[in-house]
Design goal:
heterodimer; A: 538 residues; alpha/beta; 7-stranded mixed sheet; globular; B: 665 residues; alpha+beta; Rossmann fold; Dna Ligase, domain 1; D-amino Acid Aminotransferase, Chain A, domain 1; 5 domains; 8-stranded antiparallel sheet; 8-stranded antiparallel β-barrel; 17 helices; 39 strands; 26% helix
Chain lengths: 538, 665
């Protein structure tokens, strides 16, 4: 599709309307809350531990990442709020910094221990986040760079991480087999199980006088064999570079290690497998800031998704597919940052026609190797006798079949509601989108809190009626209030992002750029659709 | 006219070859350029109708190679040869060989060149013609003792010159008898290298004089006219930097001016001069003037005469060579208005005007009424070690000197040259002084007003901050534009920003950190050296980058490479070195190493391996761009290695010798 062959969408946003202004106020507040949480996540172990780290002549973990990246290159941080509000000693960010960034001109997946937080030790959420980062590297064919300085497992919580934690090492070598290189730069401790990160990586660099890589440190060695060993000869960088061969490069200092890491990436000669973007990229015609006035912070209040699309796609040019049929699901093609994309966006409840159209559209995108972008704002599939009799289940199943078996990259943005089977049909987490981001206005659950409480009330009343027992109105009211509150809390985007149900909450105004970065990253791997789907029930 | 010709070979290069080709074209003549291997793609090759390769880069193998030039003329059926200035222009043997080959030499007769080539003969001739001369001694090949004796008679300070020389090569001032022997030795060596003749002469050295010269023109019918004077007092290393006509000297009354010009005519008549020539004089503060020498060629600074007289001197040269009468050509010459010329050199004013080499990445000249630029380079030209570092001449002309000066200042502000160090900012500074504006020039003008580095205008901190801001923003946008993955993504995108984007520049030995955030749509927030943040809006709606910095919109010319960013603000130019993100992998500096500071040729090796040296002991003498540089030991010790021998060519940065601090056993 030529970039100018499609006319731009015409925006009808009334910036002076009361609702627009209220939305701006509420969304601005939500974004400042987000920035507050992100700011916390950037503090690492806090001033005291950061200072101590710097006094040791070390770079702060995030500074390591900054210096590893190309000057002026991008970095899309993944799951910066992992572990948010979990408590139990889990810091925001889960002790890891990770994301997709440009290193020596190559898009890489970077993971860096937050060594100012409990010495970079791993907890349950660190393990989940690290597995997700490994998955992004593997699915998108991004070379992985690990910046390691970690005390290993958070021992008091070892039971939560020991068993699943092993997958990280398996993932590294399987990526290696798939010709996705892994590079490990060791800045400090990387011991016991952690020693297998440098051990499994394709290229390992260790910082002289700082790296400590051994299966067992001096105290454990003393316990086990009564040998008196010093750290440097047990697991120092010089020893591993000259004797054991666990290290491939001996770095003079941290900067030297980062320089070597960049050189290693440069010499990979890494070529992206997907097509290049268009060389000429138009900005959207409309101001991205309008999104804050368009999108309602309340997921129950609908908004026109075409106004959103007009602010995400190149030149605001959108070729709608089947616009007159099943209009509650908008489908069509556009380019974002020069990458072709097929968009599926909710414009209301999913009806049978919309679900069928979605399935057809996904098949077409697969036929022509075009990635998918899901813009979710879905309260679910339509319910009721007429719809059940009309086969809403089998039509929804077609959509889920298509989403599940599609092989082109998919990116999902959860803008508002994500309830029920709508989450599945619109490529929720369980359907393996390459990247999945949420807006602050996003809510996720099997259904809305009030709805859920209302359903439970009806069930309880029916049960009471059957048994003839009286209904304790007070208790029922309390139960409803508590349940509504619990569901509200659990459907908050912060609850979700803390548990890695998404790859991060984003400022809606950055959505276009983040989708662009995600699409570009996805193009590191081949972009190939399939014509093979499960059996469709007709 | 009897000797019409229409095929002219230009035995030169650079701006003068381009300038001669231009007039040839205007007159309908077919021009033929010659070029060395270094100049195959040079502008002068493109300026001519055809071009012939005449040899390797070294001048002796090409532009000074008489046989090669004549051979080129024969092969292209040239009928006349224009020698330009420098190279073979004042070589009598060449003039004779041209004539003997049946071609027209565009210049004076060989005998005239010969006579004027010997400074002593010239002085004697002038003395007889009643032209005042500076007291002096024509020592030629005399002994040091004879020179010493003569120096005492003349009176110190004295000036040593090569008898065969010109252009200041081999000249030296000696202020006391003790310095004479060493100066004579060096002058002989340079004279021999430059002219193949080590005859020298001595002259009284006049303190703070003005250098004023008279343009003369003779024809084959015995007529001689003058085309007024030029003042060329602003000089460095005895070479002219700024010239003008008329001279702004206050002591030059109309009567004295006429006397000077008539002296020039007398001098020319005394030798039945044919073609363009210049009589150089020293003008003392009391109004007395002394004959210096006759340059038997077109001068570098001839354009200022062309501007005030409205004549094309090259055209006159060609027509006179065809036999035309100079009187018919010029009528009664008159001088109107004022013209100033600045010479743009590839040199470092802060390193004693040492020539530099490099590639001209960008060269953009100002255009407008009353402006002329004669250039021998273009964007992409390579300035090597083999030839004169003159790049271009900027000439401003107006009804009054004050207006011409304003035009010159504006032109120098708008000129863009990137890629190698030049004297541009220095020229801006010189024409910006009150003394220059007042016309108070003399041959020590530079030494008096710019005695030490940095030789440029004082800088405003705010201007440097703007330059750093623009450089950072430019570099960020450049890197964004070449990102093949996301060409439209704002630079330094973060969804959670740990710190601003950052770049560190070096400028004049200091580090400057610029922190910035690309906010998209050309908007940046920039903080220079921790100062308050500025909002910068970039608008590239023209050939230059327009930046609105704190609501002030100015146009900047910015040019970047991997290692530096050059910014021209409306006031000055800045070459900002990009500090690499990482220190180099190995320590590059070796203690005690003697490294070539520039590309050149080793003339002499003063030491041998095993020799003990102290700090300052000369190790080697390097010749680069016609000048000798003696490299000395930076520390005491023993010479442990000499990696070169005399005659060898070396690149900048080449390790030449090594001095070890350890004492020899």
């Amino acid at each position: 599709m030529g970039p100018t062959s499609v006319p731009p969408l015409v925006s009808k946003v009334a910036r002076s309307s009361e609702r627009f202004r209220q939305n701006v106020v509420a969304n601005t507040e939500a974004i400042s809350r987000l920035e507050g949480a992100l700011s916390d996540s950037r503090q690492g172990g806090g001033e005291r531990y950061n200072l101590r780290h710097i006094e040791r002549g070390k770079l702060l973990p995030r500074e390591r990442v900054e210096r590893l990246l190309d000057r002026d290159g991008h970095f899309l941080e993944i799951a910066p709020l992992a572990g948010f509000g979990i408590g139990d000693g889990v810091k925001v960010g889960a002790g890891l910094v990770g994301g997709v960034g440009l290193v020596s001109g190559v898009e890489c997946l970077i993971t860096c221990s937050e060594s100012t937080v409990k010495g970079g030790s791993m907890n349950e959420y660190s393990v989940i986040k690290s597995r997700r980062l490994g998955e992004i590297s593997a699915q998108n064919g991004l070379p992985a760079i690990h910046l390691v300085e970690s005390g290993g497992a958070d021992l008091p919580n070892q039971s939560k991480i020991f068993v699943p934690g092993g997958q990280a090492f398996r993932d590294i070598t399987r990526a290696s087999k798939a010709r996705i290189p892994s590079i490990c730069l060791v800045f400090g401790s990387s011991t016991a199980g952690g020693a297998y990160v440098p051990g499994m990586s394709d290229y390992t660099v260790m910082v002289d006088q700082a790296a400590r890589v051994f299966l067992a440190g001096p105290p454990l060695v003393k316990m086990a064999t009564n040998e008196e060993a010093d750290e440097e000869s047990l697991g120092g960088a010089a020893m591993h570079s000259r004797k054991s061969g666990v290290s491939d490069y001996l770095a003079r200092d941290e900067l030297d290690a980062l320089r070597l890491g960049r050189e290693i990436v440069a010499q990979l000669g890494y070529q992206k497998a997907g097509p290049s973007p268009a060389s000429f990229v138009e900005d959207p015609l409309y101001d991205v800031d309008d999104l804050l006035g368009i999108v309602s912070p309340d997921p129950r209040t609908p908004f026109d998704v075409l106004e959103v699309i007009a602010r995400l796609v190149d030149g605001s040019r959108f070729h709608a597919f089947k616009p007159e049929y099943g209009p509650t699901l908008v489908t069509g093609w556009a380019t974002i940052h020069g990458y072709a994309v097929g968009i599926l966006a909710n414009q209301g409840v999913l009806f049978s026609e919309a679900a069928q159209k979605g399935a057809q559209f996904i098949a077409l995108c697969n036929q022509k190797n075009v990635p998918l972008l899901f813009l979710q704002n879905i309260t679910g599939f339509m319910v009721g006798t007429a719809y059940e009799q009309g086969g809403i289940i089998k039509h929804g199943a077609k959509l889920i079949n298509a989403v599940s078996n599609s092989t082109v990259p998919a990116i999902t943005v959860m803008m508002g509601a994500s309830f029920g089977a709508g989450n599945y049909g619109m490529c929720g987490r369980a359907y393996g989108p390459r990247f999945l981001f949420s807006w602050p206005s996003h809510r996720i659950a099997v259904m809305g809190g009030e709805q859920l409480a209302g359903v439970l009330e009806i069930v309880k009343r029916e049960a009471a009626a059957k048994s003839g027992a009286p209904v304790d109105e007070l208790e029922l009211e309390m139960m409803k209030t508590l349940l509504t509150r619990q569901i509200e809390k659990e459907s908050s985007p912060y609850f979700a992002t803390a548990r890695l149900w998404d790859d991060g909450i984003i400022d809606p105004r950055q959505t276009r750029d983040i989708i662009g970065i995600s699409l570009s990253a996805a193009h590191s791997a081949p972009v190939e659709g399939t014509m093979a789907f499960g059996v469709f029930r007709h | 006219m009897n000797g019409l010709f229409d095929r002219v070979l230009i035995a030169n290069r650079g701006e003068i070859a381009c300038r001669i080709a231009r007039t040839c074209r205007e007159m309908g003549l077919h021009s033929i350029a010659v070029y060395s291997d270094a100049d195959a793609d040079a502008p002068h090759v493109r300026a001519a109708d055809e071009a012939v390769r005449i040899g390797e880069a070294a001048p002796s193998a090409s532009y000074l190679n008489i046989e090669a030039v004549l051979d080129a003329a024969r092969r292209t059926h040239a009928q006349a040869i224009h020698p330009g200035y420098g190279f073979l222009s004042e070589n009598a043997a060449f003039a004779r060989a041209v004539t003997e080959a049946g071609l027209v030499f565009i210049g004076p007769r060989a005998e005239t060149i010969e006579a004027m080539g010997s400074k002593t003969a010239a002085r004697r001739l002038m003395q007889r013609a009643g032209v005042p001369i500076v007291p002096g001694f024509d020592g030629g090949l005399a002994s040091d003792e004879a020179f010493a004796e003569a120096a005492v008679t003349i009176g110190f300070p004295v000036l040593i010159k090569a008898s065969a020389g010109g252009g200041g090569k081999g000249m030296a001032i000696v202020r006391q008898p003790a310095d004479l022997p060493a100066a004579l030795a060096q002058a002989r060596r340079l004279a021999r290298a430059a002219f193949g003749d080590d005859a020298l002469l001595l002259e009284r050295y006049v303190e703070a004089p003005r250098h004023v010269e008279v343009q003369i023109f003779g024809d084959t019918h015995g007529q001689v006219v003058h085309l007024f004077e030029r003042e060329c007092s602003v000089q460095r290393r005895f070479q002219k930097v700024i010239e003008e006509s008329p001279s702004p000297a206050a002591q030059l009354t109309p009567e004295l001016r006429d006397a000077l010009c008539q002296a020039g005519v007398r001098a020319a008549q005394a030798m039945a001069y044919v073609g363009a020539g210049t009589c150089e004089f020293l003008l003392d503060q009391d109004g007395s003037f002394y004959f210096l020498e006759v340059n038997t060629r077109l001068q570098v600074e001839h354009p200022v005469t062309e501007c005030v007289t409205g004549l094309d001197l090259v055209r006159l040269q060609l027509l006179v060579a065809m036999g035309a009468s100079i009187g018919d050509l010029v009528g009664v010459p008159s001088s109107r208005g004022s013209a100033i010329e600045c010479r743009l050199y590839a040199e470092d004013p802060d390193l004693d005007f040492l020539p530099v080499t490099g590639e001209v990445l960008v060269f953009e000249v100002p255009v407008g009424p009353g402006l002329r630029v004669d250039a021998g380079i273009a964007s992409g030209s390579v300035v090597g070690i083999d030839y004169d570092p003159l790049l271009a001449k900027i000439i401003a002309f107006a009804d009054t000197r004050a207006e011409a000066l304003l035009r010159m200042r504006g032109a120098l502000r708008r000129l863009r040259i990137v890629g190698l160090k030049t004297n541009l900012d220095f020229l801006r500074a010189v024409v910006g002084t009150d003394a220059f504006a007042a016309g108070q020039t003399h041959t020590h003008f530079i030494a008096e007003h710019f005695p030490c580095s940095p030789r440029r205008l004082p800088r405003a901190d705010a201007d440097l901050a703007d330059a750093l801001t623009v450089a950072a923003v430019f570099a960020a946008r450049l890197r964004r534009d070449i990102n093949p993955h996301l060409p439209a993504l704002r630079s330094g995108f973060r969804n959670s920003r740990f710190r601003p984007q950052r770049v560190v520049f070096t400028f004049e030995g200091a580090l400057h950190q610029v922190d910035y955030v690309d906010e998209g749509q050309g908007l940046f927030e920039v903080r220079v050296d921790g100062a308050a943040a500025s909002k910068v809006q970039v608008r590239d709606d023209g050939p230059e980058l327009r930046c609105v910095i704190d609501r002030r919109s100015r146009a900047y010319s910015v040019h970047g490479s991997e290692t530096e960013v050059t910014v021209f603000t409306p006031a000055l130019s800045y070459v900002l070195g990009l500090v690499p993100d990482f220190p180099p992998p190995v320590d590059a500096e070796v203690p005690g190493a003697c490294v070539a500071p520039m590309p050149g040729r080793v003339v002499l090796v003063h030491v041998t391996v095993g020799e003990t040296v102290v700090t300052g002991t000369p190790l080697l003498t390097l010749e680069a761009m016609k000048m000798e540089h003696t490299l000395t030991a930076s520390s005491a010790g023993v010479v442990t290695a000499v990696h070169v021998e005399s005659g060898q060519r070396v690149d900048a940065g080449a390790l030449l010798a090594l001095v070890s601090a350890e004492v020899a056993r």
